[in-house]
Amino acid sequence: MQSNEEVVRERSMKFILNKVMALGKEIIKRDVEDLIIAECKKVMQNITCEEFETLMTILSSTHLINTPDGQKELVELLASTAELDQFFNPKDLDQVNRFITCLDFAIPFFSAHVESTKFIVYICELLNRYTLIKDNDKQFIILKSLAESVPYCGKLMNPEAVVGQVYQALLDLVTVPENDSNKKVEDMDLHRVEALLYTFHKLGKQCPDFLSKDPERQKDFKKKLLYVGTCTQTFVKIVRQDLKEKGEEDVINDPIVEKKLEGLRLACNINTLIKELFNIPPRFKATVNLSWIGGATKSKLAQIIQEGKKHEPIIVDGKSKRIDGSNNSQQIYQPPKDKFSAKFSNNTTNNNRRGGG
């Protein structure tokens, strides 16, 4: 496998995967597995993406997969391969692809026993420039992977700095339009909002006074979230109206209904997180299942629609901020249904290696 010739390396790896590992545990004893693991580690840094996937499949067939210590070893190997000690250059396509691939393989191993902390700190540090990645899908993959990994983040050395990086990314993402009826409201990417807001909510537990100790910071944040809240509540109202006559079979047979349910789950998640953060002091107790993990099933139709009914107007400083325009001169975001659904479909990629978050 250490050959400089790509063809030789590729054939060697596939032979080990398809012939040697297929012999089973009765023939491939622990000492042989240890030798294979050691050889895989030697070549991990200088291989193609396809070879990397082959090596990870080999390693996932060994005893490493069976214990927390083994899984931790795999995550450490992936962190090393991802070069988390190097500055992230969003214009370096090879580095971007390497990082995304390594993180993608690492996510299924994260657990209460295998922390994601190194990856979390690294991603949060690059949030100030991830939008420089030319491929918008890759931008979203990084945010989505951050959200999937953050439940397994351990104790941060400098939580205020890390939370601050997520905070700034959220502020940069959300543009509140001026009170000008002639100006078109910007169509936000609510999927990115969900990913960053979920991450902020999770990491905020380690720095609960981040917002409250800085009045200006809290004011700016609430202004942005209030606008997001009006957008999502409007969307919930529209989708609930569209779905109220639908039956359970429509979820299975009608892809448009399924997409609307996914969008509804997304909007409800954002509203739940905003309500938590609008409390004084902010709360970090709500359990949210990320909208892109798992699809809506027929048994979930009534539940999801009912959850949408529970979302009341956002409360700020004891006053209800309505979204019906009765006491708000700001133009209200009316999400174009087809565009919203298409955006969700285009930005969401299925990955069989991932389970939940």
UniProtKB/TrEMBL annotation:
GO terms for cellular component: nucleus. The keyword Nucleus does not apply. Residues 346-357 have a biased composition (Low complexity). It comes from the Eukaryota. Residues 318-357 are annotated as: Disordered. Keywords: Apoptosis. One of its GO terms (biological process) is negative regulation of apoptotic process. SUPFAM superfamilies: ARM repeat (SSF48371). The keyword Transcription does not apply. GO terms for molecular function: RNA binding. Belongs to the API5 family. This is Apoptosis inhibitor 5.
